[in-house]
């Protein structure tokens, strides 16, 4: 038995037609094309804002681009892989300085991301309980995340001043924990100062994301665990952390990328020349490009940084996906 397509309301069936009418095919094409048309403006802006400068930066990394060719960088001579060879030659001064900056950035990123996650998760767990003033505390916790970066970091820069800074006033004058006022923006203490500002600025984001993830955990699970005699630490270990695994997977990755690429915080805190102990790779690449006027080498360093972040992100996603599938099984 042959089934003939019936015309829709308001449509006329063509003689001998057994498939969809032209008008119906046009409507189907429009429904398929509509999402792509809506995404087209965002795609064009993405190309203009990110991809086009990225491609230009990659091309610049293969050129001997110095201050002599700044007006017409396309006329700069082709350098091939010389800029990359110079950057990864760790026995030479340029490569050695880049390697030191890379290790400093790795240590800073691990400590900052770990502390941000720990503080944010702890605060989010305790904020799940209902008590008077909970909403006010939540709003207070989010202030560092809501403040403009420049205003917040420059305030910390004043607080870290040696003579009139609030940090030395509290630690030395009030508590007597130090023998003399410390220099926080130079020397080895600069790493501690940078880490404090980064954690203060970043942990509210972790708090916000984890707090949203906790809303999806049924309270019945905690009630059942409490009836079975599970304490708070056991509930966090057996219920909270496994339930937050998808949230933490994205949260840690975002914090890692933000922290490893952070430029605003060290630049506002230390200026163009960061101390050796706080020489993050973002500031180091800036100095190699805009202070020494060697944009080719700076571009090569940026490309190497991009490749490193892509590799780390890919490995992280593969490992976390395998762990998530194993936990589900």
Tell me briefly what this model is.
The protein has helices spanning 22-60, 82-88, 93-126, 134-141, 143-146, 149-159, 166-174, 189-214, 219-227, 232-243, 245-260, 264-270, 281-291, 295-328. By secondary structure, it is an all-alpha fold. The radius of gyration is 28 Å and the shape is globular.
Main attributes of the structure:
MetI-like fold, 329 residues, mainly alpha, single chain
Characterization of this structure:
- By secondary structure, this protein is an all-alpha fold.
- It has one domain: MetI-like fold.
- It is built from 14 helices and no strands.
- The protein has helices at 22-60, 82-88, 93-126, 134-141, 143-146, 149-159, 166-174, 189-214, 219-227, 232-243, 245-260, 264-270, 281-291, 295-328.
- Helix 8 runs antiparallel to helix 11 (245-260), helix 11 (245-260) packs antiparallel against helix 14 (295-328) and helix 13 (281-291) runs antiparallel to helix 14 (295-328).
- The protein is globular and about 75 Å long.
- The two termini are 47 Å apart.
- The model is unreliable at 8-14 (pLDDT under 50).
Helix content bin = 55-70%
Question: What is the CATH homologous superfamily assignment?
Answer: MetI-like
Q: Per the principal axes of the C-alpha atoms, what is the gross shape? A: globular
Order of helices and strands: HHHHHHHHHHHHHH
Low-confidence stretches: 8-14
* Largest sheet, strands/sense/barrel: none
Number of helices: 14
